[in-house]
């Protein structure tokens, strides 16, 4: 039987196309809020009921839609943001396909109320399933309100795939939380089933926005990130190593103002925290990457959640460098209060769930003054700030460039690098902890963790160096290995030789060590080699530098002396070597090398404060 090819009727085609863009209520909220941002709004109110399945309202004070263009806005591929195919290479707005309103209207009851600054009255549209039922003039404030009811009323098959009200509202809360952080210079209010879930001040203070949305006191100690170079800029806040989670749920990324999922950025964060966290722990991260829009592709998925970078390695380097710089500042030094509430072994707390990360204290007013620009994030943000619309300014009908400039209140003094030269050594306690002070704080330095860090970096340095510096030993070290390890000797023998050891076959399952790295003592060298060989298992790829690094990390712990009382000169030498390390703040296993007590914390202990 031969099938007949036919062109689908418009209402059928619209429903099919709508399914590609509108998957669930959060899809509608996302499209409408992003349109409000692109329209220059500095105040946005979102209200939902029943997880958005029965009711969604988005109200903004943006530039509005002229009466004669209101119906055109609901036509498929109608957009004010793209004129030619060339424009796709430099997209700076959040919405651009021209499918959102058409797709939303195809599967809902839609009401639009909008007015521009120049018009005396606004326009009101009623649309059911893509059909315009009514178009009339109406009195309303400047801006746009869109009310969506009865999602998928005409496609009941899709209704069956919707989750519970709480699950759908949870996804919307996640999105609203993220977009409120992406635009701290916009005042957001989110209402769920008649209750104000959270509101932000819109004053451009990112940390304040984070605290308002997530309502977690531990976030007060987040460390600012602020780096800008030729590749772009990275700003935001990250947690000290003492605050971590068991999943990446608390890592939120923005690229040019858009909330994204990115394995590339995740790799940059992981690289930046390398050796600062235990395996299986993840930091809390709110990072904003701004880069040349021509160097990324946001048009790879209908929900625009994913981005593709032209040069992924450059982005990894940009992010990792920014994170490392932030973790190397005074603001990132682990304080004693962080240690006592360390969650290293704790399960994820209930308050981590999005439903509990809210602030209901602040109520949104519809007008405000925009904040002063505190810093320029990147050269690619050009004149965006000049076109930001104030409520009192004349709002042109033409959609302005993306209002994605995130005004972060990051003060430069907090980015001051930690300076070991400011420390004054005062002694040591328990043969383990070196004590030191600077002008405002007291420090306990774990001499063994510090030694471990120095030891590790020297070993890795030797492995990567073309010239090995070895020291002969008068009495060679004899070690024995299992026969299974003997079979793979050429692999681990080569890697040990690359680290500065001279190890030779000594018959049967024995080996002799005649030379060791110059910075090791004989007992350290013997312990290290034994543990290193023990960690070499069948199938271990010892040609991989990453694998070698992990083996060195595991083996270093055994090489560190415990409870050694050292002289003041030796302490000074230890700190001098520590400050020369690439990462002087933690041992290779992720433990801190030193902890800071502020003067205020000490005074509180003695009830002086």
UniProtKB/TrEMBL annotation:
Domain MutL C-terminal dimerisation, first and last residues per copy: 425-566
GO molecular function, one term: ATP binding
Entry annotated with the keyword DNA repair: yes
CDD domains the UniProt entry points to: HATPase_MutL-MLH-PMS-like, MutL_Trans
SMART domains linked to this entry: DNA_mis_repair, MutL_C
UniProt entry keywords in alphabetical sequence: DNA damage, DNA repair, Endonuclease, Hydrolase, Nuclease
One Gene Ontology cellular component annotation held by this UniProt entry: mismatch repair complex
Matches recorded under SUPFAM superfamilies: ATPase domain of HSP90 chaperone/DNA topoisomerase II/histidine kinase, DNA mismatch repair protein MutL, Ribosomal protein S5 domain 2-like
Domain of life assignment: Bacteria
Record's keyword annotation contains Ligase: no
InterPro entries linked: DNA_mismatch_repair_CS, DNA_mismatch_repair_MutL, DNA_mismatch_S5_2-like, HATPase_C_sf, MutL/Mlh/PMS, MutL/Mlh/Pms-like, MutL_C, MutL_C_dimsub
Residue ranges annotated for the DNA mismatch repair protein S5 domain, each copy included: 210-328
GO terms of biological process kind: mismatch repair
A Pfam family matched in the record: DNA_mis_repair
Family of the protein in this entry: Belongs to the DNA mismatch repair MutL/HexB family.
Function: This protein is involved in the repair of mismatches in DNA. It is required for dam-dependent methyl-directed DNA mismatch repair. May act as a 'molecular matchmaker', a protein that promotes the formation of a stable complex between two or more DNA-binding proteins in an ATP-dependent manner without itself being part of a final effector complex.
Protein name listed in UniProt: DNA mismatch repair protein MutL
């Amino acid at each position: 039987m031969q099938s007949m090819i036919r062109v689908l009727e418009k209402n059928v085609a619209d429903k099919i196309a709508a399914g590609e863009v509108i998957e669930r209520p959060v899809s509608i909220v996302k499209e409408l809020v992003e349109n409000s941002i692109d329209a220059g709004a500095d105040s946005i109110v979102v209200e939902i009921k029943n997880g958005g399945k029965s009711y969604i309202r988005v109200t903004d004070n943006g530039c509005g839609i002229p009466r004669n263009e209101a119906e055109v806005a609901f036509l498929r591929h109608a957009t004010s943001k793209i004129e030619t195919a060339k424009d796709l290479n430099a997209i700076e707005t959040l919405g651009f396909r021209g499918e959102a309103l058409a797709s939303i209207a195809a599967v809902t009851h839609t009401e639009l109320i909008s007015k521009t600054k120049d018009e005396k009255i606004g326009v009101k549209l009623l649309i059911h399933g893509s059909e315009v039922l009514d178009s009339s003039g109406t009195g309303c404030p400047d801006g746009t309100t869109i009310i969506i009811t009865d999602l998928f009323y005409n496609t009941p098959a899709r209704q069956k795939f919707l989750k519970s009200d709480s699950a759908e509202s949870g996804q919307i809360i996640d999105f609203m939380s993220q977009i409120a952080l992406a635009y701290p210079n916009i005042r957001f209010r989110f209402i769920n089933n008649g209750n104000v879930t959270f509101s932000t001040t819109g004053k451009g203070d990112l940390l304040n926005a984070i605290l308002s949305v997530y309502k977690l006191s531990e976030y007060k100690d987040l460390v600012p990130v602020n780096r800008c170079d030729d590749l772009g800029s990275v700003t935001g806040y990250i947690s000290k190593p003492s605050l971590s989670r068991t999943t990446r749920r608390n890592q939120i990324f923005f690229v040019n103002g858009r909330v994204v999922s990115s394995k590339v950025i995740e790799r940059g964060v992981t690289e930046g925290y390398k050796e600062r966290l235990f395996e299986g722990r993840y930091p809390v991260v709110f990072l904003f990457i701004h880069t040349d829009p021509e160097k990324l592709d946001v048009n790879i998925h209908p929900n625009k959640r994913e981005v593709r970078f032209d040069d992924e390695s450059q982005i990894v380097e940009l992010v990792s460098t920014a994170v490392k710089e932030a973790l190397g500042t005074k603001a990132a030094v682990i304080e004693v209060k962080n240690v006592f509430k360390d969650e290293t072994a704790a399960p994820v707390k209930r308050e981590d769930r999005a439903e509990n990360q809210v602030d209901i204290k602040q109520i949104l007013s519809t007008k405000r003054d925009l904040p002063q620009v505190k810093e320029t994030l990147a050269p690619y943000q050009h004149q965006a700030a000049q076109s930001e619309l104030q409520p009192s300014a004349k709002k042109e009908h033409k959609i302005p460039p993306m209002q994605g400039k995130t005004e972060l209140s990051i003060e430069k003094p907090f980015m001051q690098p930690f300076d070991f030269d400011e420390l004054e050594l005062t002694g040591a306690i328990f043969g383990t902890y070196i004590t030191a002070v600077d002008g405002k704080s007291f420090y306990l330095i774990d001499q063994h963790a510090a030694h471990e860090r120095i030891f590790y970096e020297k070993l890795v340095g030797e492995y990567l160096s073309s010239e090995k510096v070895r020291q002969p030993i008068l009495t060679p070290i004899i070690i024995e290995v299992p026969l299974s390890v003997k079979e793979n000797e050429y692999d681990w023998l080569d890697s040990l030789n690359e680290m500065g050891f001279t190890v030779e076959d000594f018959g049967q399952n024995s080996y002799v060590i005649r030379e060791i790295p110059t910075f090791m003592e004989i007992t350290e060298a013997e312990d290290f080699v034994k543990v290193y060989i023990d960690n070499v298992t069948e199938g271990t790829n010892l040609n991989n530098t990453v694998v070698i690094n992990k083996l060195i990390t595991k083996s270093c712990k055994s090489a560190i002396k415990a409870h050694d009382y050292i002289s003041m000169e030796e302490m000074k030498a230890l700190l001098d070597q520590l400050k020369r390390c690439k990462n002087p703040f933690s041992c290779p296993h992720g433990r801190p090398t030193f902890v800071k007590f502020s003067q205020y914390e000490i005074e509180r202990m003695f009830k002086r404060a």
